[in-house]
Automatic annotation (TrEMBL), chain A:
Protein's UniProt keywords contain Metal-binding: no
Entry protein name: Carbon monoxide dehydrogenase
Residues annotated as domain Aldehyde oxidase/xanthine dehydrogenase a/b hammerhead: 21-139
Molecular function via GO: iron ion binding; oxidoreductase activity
Naturally occurring in which organism (per UniProt): Marivita geojedonensis
Automatic annotation (TrEMBL), chain B:
PROSITE patterns, A to Z: FAD_PCMH (PS51387)
Residue ranges that the Swiss-Prot or TrEMBL entry lists as coiled coil: none
Protein name: Carbon monoxide dehydrogenase
Occurrences of domain FAD-binding PCMH-type (ranges): 1-168
Annotated signal sequence range: none
Keyword line: FAD, Flavoprotein, Oxidoreductase
Gene source species: Marivita geojedonensis
Superkingdom as given in the UniProt entry: Bacteria
Molecular function via GO: FAD binding; oxidoreductase activity
Keyword Nucleotide-binding recorded: no
Length: 791, 262
């Protein structure tokens, strides 16, 4: 019988009742009395020198409260980058200014130039049309290789060139070169990890409010981490101390990384609310989202894999150009380096791994973390080059992977701190079983009867989640700690509010976190609620990204709950006239071990708040505990994925016929929610692999600026549930956090893109198109057709 | 959007009168015009909604056997009510956009807009349809005049579209992955006096007849008879496919349409 409560129960998501019945409270649902609206006038040029911004005609237009330009933000801080990468020469990365509103130059289409605050949004838009811009268009820098050429136009005139940093990590050059020199076979692959737009269902929103009565600022915003925003905006941009700044991220309709970052619009609304002495609201349109939300991925990579005569991997070397866009977004610098390079060994015991990354400024929207963040880029190149090597060597791609698997743990790769645990053969076995690999030949024959080519793609991946050990990331350049925090507040009658630093924007925390507390206390989940998303209510936690919520914040919650249990046992011991070391807690009852003397949870909690019969000389009244948890290591979820595609050789269209994921997430608290996370991640990975393409033309104009040209995956692009199995039965619990959990939020998006592309290449080879070794994502019909026809 | 007045006339005569106002625009189902207004790319003084004119709605069969569809008829209605009389046309209507689009968008609106990737122009041209307006009747061959260009005069309203019903027909659409408009759509219709083949989505000149295929199929109506793909010159080339790819798809979709027509 599956469990119906506590850890391991597939409880339905309690938050869905309000989400699905229109009762959610999203940021755009928040309207503050007297609010004005801001419309941002954004650059339609990719690059230009601002000579003059004439707002005089616009200022007198109906409803206009005030018009702001970059001049109004002189003396105000720029948007900070949260991670300082040190380059291979020991120099810090180049960190150009990132003003709230453009100063001197515009650097990408969508760069905000002016902000019109008016009584209504329509009035603001109309007035913005009356602003006269005098901007000299400059040549745009779009292609990364060209951006690095000597004499290229510079995105930032105060820098020497467009290079943000030149980073190297892993095995030294001499050792790496020796591995390649000794290789029996070297496989090389050049590829692109396509630029993506996250496209959460809810666009970004910010509402700034200011109270003159007590000099307090409030920002309501669509964020994954309200405390991070409070810290960055308060300390680095606007100079507001924490106790005068409240940041609220209420219900948030999806983040996928793009709502981690501190954005100009947040700082603007907070600033303008005080300047105008009126609340100021901004709601992004979908069109604005395409040109102002941080984009994801955008790497151009050459990877080489060296194998010995027995097909053992002996060296991996990668060279990547990583697009930063026009400015450094909050965590942009960490993505191609520490979140990418450290995973470059994958699941394999390759002794020499060297990663080289040049980060490049271009006249495009800033690029930052998007679901997986660096790890999909690492997995894609490694798993594609392994697949190519298997084909070149004529060996089974599963066997080639298996023979190179890391099998003993902990294991320290040349690029990572130790993988604590894992069993890569187990997930491969499970994937093979669920995929029915022996039946593939018959399925391929059936497809061929219908004029289609069928391919089987397999893939392994590992990721580093549970971000992150603060002392380690501090050494690597992080400008923040990455612990998390939870306060467990037990109320007098025994109900519980858990204030958590993690933020739920679709993950299901409101369901999962209470399952853990209820299990520990032996009470019903309905007695436990979590509180999140409001810096005035929750302890200083770092929010949700990097599949960290349960592994890090959940661990803090466990620690705080343990403190509650310890104190409650003392109270129970007093009530039962026994030593607290003899008290056992089971099913919500405190019992003196070996007796039938017991007292109920509610009696103990009431005693804590009505301490008439209470050991006041030994312990304080009340029952509320806080814990901060800083992880000892990352967690390392891993898995084996497989898919089968059909390719229509006449049109190039690829359809996914079957998809299997076998993940090892360690322990699982709510299997249904884990499966949902993987389903969603795979859907986004399929989107990247087959559909999504954020494209610029050579002038820096965004070609895919709406859903008319940016292809989001839809339900019928994803395999039918019957052919779509997500498994998490292989479980090697994390060794260093109390729940033994590893995180599941990003796995699907990391594991699926190479799986799909490997399958497409396999299909094409089966049809005799053996000249096709790679197709860059998205593997669209036109690209498949062009590859088949050598165009 | 900018502010504007709206009128909802209930007769063609009232609509024509309303459209004589300066900067007035007719509003069909609004599936193109409303997004355009929201982006402030159009600023009419008056929107004249045609949605309340009962006489331009509905599907019927004319005395000559032609299928007559009122200009204000939605795609969903065509999908349902033309299913028995002209199944290929009904299937085309039933695959335009999504349910929201099909329940708002109208055939008259689609033909008046003449989007180079829209489905209806292919059906109208391949069927040799007659576009009837408040002032005249226009043969499809004269009606389509390039991307977003038609023979309509300002203020002229499509009241009805008459489709001669073919012996066999089918429409094959290869969808652009993002918009799901036709990257290439081919409508093949076989009549007693010959075969007509119309292509949408592909050409920089909008919908066109592929006359080589028409000639070949008129003498031998089989997929094998479809000629080699036309040249990619003059075909749309964009993020979603080159001109050569679109040209290739014309032949593939024509073959599939012929096979589907049976």
């Amino acid at each position: 019988m599956p469990k119906d409560h506590g850890i391991g129960a597939s409880q339905k998501r309690r938050e869905d009742v309000r989400f699905l019945t229109g009762a959610g409270n999203y940021t755009d649902d928040i309207n503050v009395h007297g609010q004005a609206y801001v419309h941002f006038l954004r650059s339609d040029l990719a690059h230009g020198k601002i000579n003059n911004i004439d707002t005089s005609a616009a200022e007198g237009m109906p409803g206009v409260v005030r018009i702001f330009t970059g001049k109004d933000f002189e003396g105000v801080g720029g948007l900070p980058c949260g991670w300082q990468v040190t380059d291979k020469h020991g120099e810090p990365m180049k960190e150009p200014a990132h003003p709230v509103l453009a100063q001197g130059k515009v650097r990408h289409v969508g760069d905000p130039i002016a902000a019109v605050v008016a009584d209504s949004l329509e009035q603001a838009r109309t007035a913005a049309e009356a602003i006269v811009l005098d901007i000299d268009e400059l040549p745009a820098v779009v292609d990364m290789a060209k951006a690095l050429e000597a004499g290229s136009t510079k995105v930032h005139d105060d820098l020497a060139d467009n290079l943000c940093y030149d980073w190297q990590f892993g095995t030294d050059t001499e050792t790496t070169d020796a591995a390649f020199k000794n290789a029996a076979h070297v496989t090389t692959l050049e590829l692109v990890n396509n630029r993506l737009v996250a496209n959460p269902m809810e666009p970004r929103v910010a509402v700034g409010d200011y109270s003159r009565a007590n000099d307090e600022h409030t920002l309501y915003t669509t964020s994954q981490n309200p405390h991070v925003i409070r810290l960055l905006m308060g300390a680095f941009v606007l100079g507001i101390p924490e106790h005068k700044l409240r940041v609220v991220a209420p219900d948030v309709g999806g983040g996928f990384g793009t709502k981690i970052f501190h954005y100009a619009e947040e700082a603007f609304c907070t600033f303008a609310a005080k300047a105008c002495n009126r609340p100021v609201k901004w709601t992004s349109t979908r069109s604005e989202a395409f040109m102002s939300d941080a984009h994801g991925r955008d790497h151009v990579t050459k990877i080489e894999l060296a194998l010995d005569k027995d097909n053992n991997f002996i060296g991996v070397r990668t060279d990547t150009l990583a697009n930063m866009g026009a400015y450094l977004s909050t965590f942009s610098s960490s993505v191609p380096t520490w979140l990418h390079g450290t995973l470059m060994a994958g699941n394999y015991k390759t002794p020499a791994v060297q990663v080289n990354v040049k980060a490049v400024f271009t006249n495009t929207v800033p690029v930052d973390a998007y679901r997986g963040a660096g790890r999909p880029e690492a997995t894609f190149q490694l798993e594609r080059v392994i697949d190519k090597a298997a084909r070149e060597l004529g060996v089974d791609p599963m066997q080639l992977r298996r023979q190179n698997f890391i099998t003993s743990f902990p294991y320290e790769t040349p690029v990572a701190v130790a993988y604590d645990t894992g069993d890569y053969h187990a997930t491969m076995d499970k994937m093979e079983e669920l995929m029915d690999i022996p039946g593939f030949a018959a399925r391929r024959a059936e497809s061929e009867k219908n004029g289609k080519l069928r391919g089987l793609g397999i893939n392994c991946f590992i990721e580093a989640c549970g971000i992150a050990p603060s002392n380690l990331v501090g050494q690597l350049g992080a400008r923040a700690g990455l612990y998390d925090a939870a306060t467990v507040r037990v109320n007098a009658t025994g109900s519980i509010s858990v204030m958590v630093g993690a933020h739920s924007h679709g993950q299901g925390h409101e369901t999962v976190f209470p399952q853990v507390v209820a299990e520990m206390l032996g009470i019903d989940e309905s007695m436990v609620d979590i509180v999140h998303g409001d810096t005035s209510k929750i302890p200083f936690g770092m929010g949700t990204y990097g599949s960290r919520s349960l592994a890090v914040c959940g661990s803090a919650m466990v620690r705080a709950t343990e403190k509650i249990i310890n104190k409650a046992k003392k109270i129970a011991g007093h009530l039962l006239e026994a030593s607290d070391s003899d008290i056992e807690l089971k099913d919500g009852q405190f019992t003196v071990a070996g007796t039938d003397k017991s007292v109920a949870w509610g009696d103990v909690t009431l005693a804590a708040y009505v301490p008439h019969n209470y050991p006041l000389e030994d312990i304080e009244p009340g029952l509320e505990e806080t814990a901060f948890y800083d992880p000892a290591n990352f967690t390392y979820p891993a898995g084996a994925y497989a898919c089968e595609v059909e390719v229509d050789p006449d049109t190039g269209k690829v359809t996914i016929e079957k998809f299997v994921s076998a993940d090892d997430f360690g322990n699982v608290v709510n299997p249904m929610i884990v499966e949902g996370q993987v389903h969603g991640g795979i859907a986004q990975g399929i989107g990247q692999a087959l559909l999504e393409n954020c494209a610029y033309d050579e002038n820096g104009q965004l070609l895919s600026a709406s859903y008319m040209d940016y292809a989001m995956p839809r339900a019928d692009d994803i395999p039918h549930m019957a052919s779509y199995v997500v498994d998490h039965s292989c479980q090697t619990p994390c060794t260093h956090n109390p729940l033994g959990v590893k995180g599941c939020g990003e796995a699907g998006a990391i594991g699926s893109p190479p799986t799909v592309v490997n399958a497409v290449i396999d299909a094409l080879h089966s049809g005799g198109h053996t000249h096709v070794n790679h197709i860059d994502m998205p593997v669209s019909p036109s690209r498949v057709w062009a590859a088949i026809n050598g165009q | 959007m900018y502010s504007f007045d709206i009128q909802r006339p209930t007769s063609i005569a009232d609509a024509v009168a309303a459209l004589s106002t300066d900067e007035a625009l007719p509003l069909g189902g609004g599936q193109t015009l409303i997004p355009t207004l929201k982006q402030r790319l159009s600023a009419p003084s008056v929107l004249v909604s045609l949605g309340a004119i009962a006489e331009i709605k509905g599907v019927c069969t004319g005395d000559d056997g032609a299928l007559c569809i009122g200009g204000g008829t939605t795609h969903a209605t065509v999908a349902k009510e033309a299913a028995s009389s002209y199944p290929a046309l009904a299937a085309l209507a039933g695959n335009i956009g999504d349910p929201a689009v099909r329940n708002r968008g109208t055939i008259g609106g689609s033909l008046a807009n003449n989007d180079p990737s829209a489905c209806y122009p292919a059906a109208a041209l391949a069927s040799g349809a007659t576009i009837v307006t408040n002032t005249r009747s226009i043969a499809a061959d004269d009606y389509f005049q390039g991307m977003f260009a038609t023979a309509l005069n300002e203020g002229e309203i499509i009241t009805e579209v008459r489709f001669p019903v073919p012996e066999k027909a089918a429409y094959m659409k290869f969808e652009q992955p993002a918009s799901r408009f036709a990257l290439v759509g081919v409508f093949v219709a076989k009549y007693a006096d010959g075969v007509r083949v119309a292509v949408t989505g592909a050409s920089e000149d909008g919908v066109f007849r592929w006359t080589e295929a028409e000639a070949a199929l008129s003498s031998n109506f089989s997929a094998d008879a479809v000629p080699a793909a036309p040249s990619g010159d003059g075909m749309i080339s964009d993020l979603h496919g080159s001109g050569a790819y679109r040209a290739h798809l014309i032949a593939v979709m024509t073959k599939r349409a012929v096979a589907a027509a049976g």
